[in-house]
Design brief:
Layout lengths: L8 H10 L8 E2 H7 L6 H9 L12 E2 L12 H12 L4 E2 L2 E2 L1 H4 L9
Parallel strand pairs: 1-2
Antiparallel strand pairs: 3-4
The structure holds a DNA duplex.
Amino acid sequence: MNTDRKIPDVYGRIWATVEKIPRGRVSTYGTIARLSGLPGRARLVGYAMFNLPEGAGVPWHRVVNAAGKISLPHGRESRRRQRLLLEREGIAFDGDKLDLKTVGWPPASFRG
DNA sequence: CTGGTGACCATTA
DNA sequence: TTAATGGCCACCA
């Protein structure tokens, strides 16, 4: 394969995990990191999202922080777009945050 | 090499 | 509840 790739394949692994988030659900940076085999590297997931090319087909909007809030800074266009895309999928917001217990993925009942 | 930054998170107080 | 702290690691000047 490609032994002299410039982009770390962890990016591709992270993006592949994000693609698994079903419509109407959200996951967190830490969870994506863990499911990608990169426990404790939540910041790397944020970095991978930041460097995500547009039109890649990755549902980046379904990734929020552990507090259940959109992590993009205020005033940024993509922040408003993320909220819009989530509400479009039927996700309800209470102020700035959503309920991870309800719309979080994987669901809490995953275990067992 | 060093130091700063960031779409993070768990712990502690 | 908020705030501070340490850990994490790719990238850049």
